[in-house]
Design brief:
Layout: H1 5-11, H2 24-27, H3 32-45, H4 48-55, H5 64-90, H6 97-106, H7 108-126, H8 129-156, H9 159-189, H10 191-204, H11 215-226, H12 228-243, H13 253-259
Helix pairs in contact: 3-5, 3-11, 5-9, 8-9, 8-10, 8-12, 9-10, 11-12
The chain binds fe (ii) ion (FE2) (2 copies).
Organism: Phytohabitans maris
Protein name: Ferritin-like domain-containing protein
InterPro entries: Ferritin-like_SF (IPR009078), RNR-like (IPR012348)
Length: 268
């Protein structure tokens, strides 16, 4: 069943936190590990507008259904970052606009100029089939974000953090539903789109955030969330979801990607 975009447009919203007592973090602060993970997460969430910049120079931009979704998606992701910043603020951690700006400046000429131009030209050559890759990529990233929040909830066992992150997860689930329905339809109708997507995932996919944050941070976050038995289970679950997409079976995408950052993933 295809995604109900009209309903989503009408109901996209800033994640609700008006009933959350952020002072609770003063009495029961999060672990140092969780704080480090949250820095990574807000860096990624607040970078959404930059990912959007790079996507609007591709054929996805010519499809108004997709740009309507991306408009709302960008809005909701913005608030995810904002809410995480509020948690960091209570812990007296650096956050907010100066931090977001420094992440953007750190991307340098390669990230801010070469990457969007390269993506523009590559996507133009691929044409309509690029959209299937974009949608599949988006689905994998939304699965990963949902899983990462889930793991942080499990590891931290903090009622207020759980309340906030579960609400973020609900929105990630809707993002996922859009990407999934678009990816599946597009992959099902084109063998060429399947081959392009498979090649792009195998060759270029990396854990969300790893291209914009220092390697040491990606390494830490992936090991903290995905190492050990609970984390390993999540990695296998993510791989099995990718496997079910048309033409994408057997990639072991997430297993390979996280192993590259030193996460020990048991072979099944
Ligand atoms: Fe998000
Ligand atoms: Fe999302």
């Amino acid at each position: 069943m295809s995604f109900n975009l009209d309903h989503y447009k009408q109901t996209a919203t800033a994640v609700r936190v008006d009933d959350v007592d952020f002072d609770d973090f003063r009495d029961k602060p999060l672990s140092a590990e969780a704080i480090r993970v949250l820095h990574y997460m807000t860096d990624v969430e607040t970078h959404t507008v930059c990912y959007l910049r790079d996507l609007l120079v591709t054929p996805s931009h010519q499809n108004p259904r997709i740009t309507a979704f991306l408009t709302m998606w960008n809005f909701e992701e913005f608030w995810h970052g904002d809410v995480i910043d509020r948690i960091l603020d209570v812990h007296k951690e650096i956050n907010g606009l100066p931090r977001h700006r420094s992440v953007r400046v750190a991307q340098g000429f390669m990230g801010n100029v070469v990457a969007p131009i390269t993506q523009c030209l590559t996507a133009a050559v691929l044409g309509e089939d690029f959209i299937a890759t974009h949608m599949t990529w988006g689905a994998v990233n939304e699965w990963s974000a949902h899983a990462a929040y889930g793991r942080l909830i499990e590891l931290e066992q903090h009622a207020t953090l759980t309340k906030i992150l579960q609400r973020i997860q609900q929105q990630e689930s809707r993002h996922l539903a859009f990407y999934m329905s678009e990816a599946r339809e597009r992959l099902e109708r084109s063998r060429k789109a399947q081959r392009i997507t498979r090649f792009a995932l195998r060759r270029f996919w990396a854990p969300v955030g790893s291209t914009i944050t220092p390697k040491s941070e990606t390494r830490f976050v992936l090991n903290h969330l995905l190492g050990g038995e609970g984390g390993n289970k999540m990695v296998k679950m993510l791989d099995s979801k990718v496997d079910k997409l048309p033409g994408q079976e057997g990639l072991s995408l997430v297993t390979k990607a996280v192993r590259a950052f030193g996460v020990r993933v048991a072979t099944a």
